[in-house]
Amino acid sequence: METQVLYNITHQETFGLFIAIYFYLTGLSAGSFILSTLSYGFGMEQYKPLGKVGVVLATVLLIFAPLFLLFHIGAPYRAWHLFVYLNWSSPITWGSFLLVLYPINCIIYGIFMFKGNLKLTRLFGFIGIPLAISVHGYTGFILAFGKARALWNTAIMPILFLASAIVSGIALMILVCLIIGRFFSKEKTINKDLIFSLSKLLAWMIVFDLFLVGSDLLVLSISHSDAQAAFHLLLGGNFSFLFLVVENVLGKILPFILLVVPRFRNLVTVTIASILVVVGIFFMRYVVVLAGEFIPLL
Amino acid sequence: MSNKSKKYAMLFDLRKCIGCNTCSIVCKSENDVPLSVWRAWVKKIEKGHYPHVREFSLPIVCNNCEDPICVTVCPVNAGIKRPDGIVYIDPHRCIGCRYCMASCPYGVRYINPRKKIAEKCYWCHHRVDAGLMPACVVTCPTGAILFGDLNDPESEIAQVIAKNAVHVIKPEMGTSPQTYYIGLDIESVEAVEEEK
Known about the structure:
The complex is a heterodimer of chains A (298) and B (196). Chain A is mostly helical. Chain A is built from ten helices and one strand; from the N terminus they run E-H-H-H-H-H-H-H-H-H-H. Chain A has helices at 17-40, 50-72, 81-84, 91-115, 118-144, 157-184, 192-222, 225-236, 240-260, 267-292, and one strand spanning 3-7. The two termini of chain A are 18 Å apart. By secondary structure, chain B is an alpha+beta fold. Chain B has one domain: Alpha-Beta Plaits. In chain B, 22% of the residues lie in helices and 20% in strands. Chain B has helices at residues 22-31, 69-73, 99-103, 125-129, 135-139, 156-163, 186-190, and strands at residues 8-13, 41-47, 54-60, 79-81, 87-89, 110-111, 118-119, 145-149, 179-182. In chain B, strand 2 (41-47) and strand 3 (54-60) form a beta hairpin. Classes of the chains: A mainly alpha (298), B alpha+beta (196).
């Protein structure tokens, strides 16, 4: 039946760019923290140089991230309501506590690490891992609980967010290690073994992330009508360039090729691949948040 | 004033609706709704090929769902469901995080551009508590809108809902909407504007 909308009101934007930036920063922070615990928590000695860098990055990023929430909400001077009027069925309430506990734990963990108290560092590292997973995983639940939006309302959303958090965390860590090694270390040399072992890790996390994105898309394509509309929006609509080209080809597939083909493996390609991944994951957040609310509901 | 034994509901008889937008306008003046946002509006679609066309109107207000997702996800308990079924927002508690807007399947919530907090239709509970009908119900020129207590078998709305085929918007969302429609057209719910 040929139907035309003659009149309807325009709906306001719900979650915008600020929320996408917030998700991106918490993802980077959680990814950095998990990398930092690889040596200090799990005893993988080859990742020892990441410990201190990781915890500083995780703390700094997580201190900036909630600022974007304050920019986003309409009445920031009422933000204390989040800690007083609790609603445990809302992921934002979980998050308001995670966003306090996680940075505090990061700081304690960092202090013990810099003081050289390995036993307590290990303890707070292990406390921090579930916190880091929750502090980013809960943002996936925020979107998944938005049940009106087909693109958000999938159980894969938290794990998809975690996978992309680790991908972006590793890529950021590679970049930071390169910069520190090149300009700020005493020897002015780059720890190549570390970079290449991180880049291998990055490549396989990208594969996992691509698998999750692919399975999300496949299920969307045969699910109910709203989900199909979201599928077409991503693959052929307004977000297709950002989703296909920027997020997936430039942000995942090209870096994966650069990282795994032995002929390409050198510091320049690793740098390019990491920059592409860091930018690509930002657009992943952007596309998920904005494409999810792009299709009007009524 | 809310009464546990009551269960309010609203009914739009689309056979009587002429799409005149009186409900939209009276709602604006009754509830002091700012420019650019609406608590009640009339979506209009056109179906068919010329000359066999018809315009359909769909007046939309908040469904005041029995199982409201906006109340479930509100992080500060600003969304409150009264025992009589009316869902309202505590204006002193809302922080304007927009989560309720993001999760509402009906898009009836908006951020007040002046107060920066979420607002929506709450069936004029200030009038209902005073024993009056909501503003849109009293002003509808064709009497297409009914409001009343479903638990009272003598009320007009309970009888009309009992005797007619009624429908709600998007029942698949599992929110149990309490705004009923007679003659609801599926196209007028599903049609959305072309992407620009």
